[in-house]
Amino acid sequence: MTDTLPPALPAAIDESRQWARLMGMAMLGAIPHDGVNREALTPLDRQARRLLVTWAIEAGLTVSIDEMNNLFLRHEGTDPTAAPVLSGSHMDSQPSGGRFDGIWGVVAALEAVQAIREAGLATRRPIEVVSWTNEEGGRFAPGCMGSMAWSGHRPATTWDQVADGAGITFRAALDEQMAAEADLPRRPLGPQPGAAPFAYVEAHIEQGPRLEADLLDIGVVTGIQGSRWFLVDITGQSAHAGTTPVGLRRDAVQDMVRAIEALNRLTEDPEDVLRFTVGRVEVHPNSSNSVADRVRFSIDLRHPDAAVLTAKGDAIAATVQSAVKFCTAQVTERFTAMPATFQPDVPAAVEAAAAALGLRSLRLASGAFHDAQFLVPVCPTGMIFVPSRGGISHNPAEYSSPEQLAAGTRVLAATLYDLANR
Amino acid sequence: MTDTLPPALPAAIDESRQWARLMGMAMLGAIPHDGVNREALTPLDRQARRLLVTWAIEAGLTVSIDEMNNLFLRHEGTDPTAAPVLSGSHMDSQPSGGRFDGIWGVVAALEAVQAIREAGLATRRPIEVVSWTNEEGGRFAPGCMGSMAWSGHRPATTWDQVADGAGITFRAALDEQMAAEADLPRRPLGPQPGAAPFAYVEAHIEQGPRLEADLLDIGVVTGIQGSRWFLVDITGQSAHAGTTPVGLRRDAVQDMVRAIEALNRLTEDPEDVLRFTVGRVEVHPNSSNSVADRVRFSIDLRHPDAAVLTAKGDAIAATVQSAVKFCTAQVTERFTAMPATFQPDVPAAVEAAAAALGLRSLRLASGAFHDAQFLVPVCPTGMIFVPSRGGISHNPAEYSSPEQLAAGTRVLAATLYDLANR
């Protein structure tokens, strides 16, 4: 690798163009304190995609979308029939998210391909920049719907009835966005028979504190910890807050408190590796002088070890059932992603590219899930991390500097150039 | 009293007309299982008010509204300058409420006045039927805004900035409704100097199990337990659910759980008289894979003894502060109604009316708060309860039979006739 990296390529990465594009994207859904709220399949999402398409067309790429609204920008190879190298991430954000999670991986892939072209270089294989639909899962849970459907992990119609907070179904939102993008050429969903990508590379901010703490430039990601998502529905009885003795109530809020306490005990981990989060709570009727008759809350459970994730996750339903005292409870698992280990090819290429560029890298696993984990069964897969200030993410304060991001994009460009010429 | 009740008056109470009116009102905002969702200052509220106005005009009453949108229907006395007797309740419901809470008190007062007129009887004093604005406080907290402003307990502009779940302010909703009712004659807000009502009588369902359990017809209400409402705002930091170690989080949901546990201990009452309710919870950003940075929850605390209510309520802020572990908390008291004791006049008149009608009555205090408690400083005040099936209220299953309601309305008519001829 070292001797095949043309010096013109890293030099062609335009740090200020990439930063300007990220800041421009951050205007679409800007919220206070530099945050972004641009959820999947919203008008803001459409605006962001249009902007990306404009840049791609200016850069000479060809645009297409599939039935899941995954968006592809293709750089042609000298052998157009060769299996392409795929690189990208997602453009949707958390409802109270930052300016880099997801969007940088898409903008970086475009910047890398544009740099290859502007440096006058060619690649044997085509390179396709991809933006996967609804990675975050904030509006429509679970996340990674676009990559799950594309990779055949789940059928494309799996989430038709999933509704957002306003009652709009994923199917309705998807149909609306597809109609709004009817002018974009269509491509079939997923890798076609005998035409799997040669490799998939995703650039992303670390969303953890490790690279910053160790003064490193690049994370060579070796795999992704597993995640299991659950919904807990507690059903009691609504009653008047002033007249109903506490002892006669079937109060769903109080049983939620009991259930979360019991789950805290179940997920206690002295090593602090197991991640247990209740991030979403919906109370009905949500009136201050009515005892709640229904509560729904989410559970996000993660661990890098499949055995731990299986054991703890499988114990959740029974833990909730024995904790609720006056109500009934139902626990539904709605997303499962077992820990993923990347094939050695892409991490090795990333590591070599970082070394060739004189950057300090570290092999590490991802705490967050990413579209990349659904690519593992399809083709050699890997990810490139850059440092996140304070390890903060899913928050307006999320930050990586223009220099850190440009360094990551140089590694991505070198990796893509390497893989696309194999 | 007994010898002044003309037999034509109870006979003129039309049980089926009253039931039909209640069932008609229940169609405006009908929700499954016979429930009603007709919150204050909504289009449904306006429809219900129009319907009431139609009935009032047919019955020969004159209609007016004040700047708080309180609605008055006046039956003229033979001495129009005499202080009027006031009777009514409210027409708004809980978001998941029933068909009788509030609305029956308004429909019953209209039925009572209409019966007086149809029986060919006259009263020396005018009788005014009133519907107070936003008693429930479900959409705009706190409740009883209309009666609080009318009685001078709080200025009419106190709640201008209070917003509902959709961000609409009370002021905007009030202005919209006043504009929609611009054709109705206006009257000044509150009792005018030297023109306080002679008495106020409010008919209401019991919302408790006592009358039903003791096979009684009528509750002679002697007072109302006190209520204190608080909002607790917990502020932590949003973070990624997959990457942020649990030990490094400032998780607002977890600190809410700690606060509620501590409040449960503070409000533990072996006699089960103290009522502590967390009925409303709002989580931000409310995304299943983000640690919550903000939680707001409501506290509704009630007790018939002012000393207990003061001591427990005053301890809430410190209890929350010492319970939260990683976040900051702010506790705001937003509604206070100390226990109210009715002057003897109206309860005595209600008791005599029930006896004259051969109904079994019981003196009891109200567990729920009512507009009546804000009338106590203004004029002699009282309430009439009828049994609630199973004591259930603030719930679609709320029920009192046509016969039980008609009996209550006969007592109300006799009481109003008695008071309006003094």
Automatic annotation (TrEMBL), chains A, B:
Transmembrane segments: none annotated. CDD domains: M20_bAS (cd03884). InterPro entries: Amidase_Cbmase, Bact_exopeptidase_dim_dom, Peptidase_M20, Peptidase_M20_dimer. The keyword Hydrolase applies. Residues 223-322 form the Peptidase M20 dimerisation domain. Its EC number is 3.5.-.-. Gene3D superfamilies: 3.30.70.360, Zn peptidases. Keywords: Hydrolase. Pfam families: M20_dimer, Peptidase_M20. It comes from the Bacteria. One of its GO terms (molecular function) is hydrolase activity. The keyword Phosphoprotein does not apply. Belongs to the peptidase M20 family. PANTHER family: ALLANTOATE AMIDOHYDROLASE (PTHR32494:SF5), ALLANTOATE DEIMINASE-RELATED (PTHR32494). This is Hydantoinase/carbamoylase family amidase. It comes from Roseomonas haemaphysalidis. The lineage of its organism: Bacteria, Pseudomonadati, Pseudomonadota, Alphaproteobacteria, Acetobacterales.
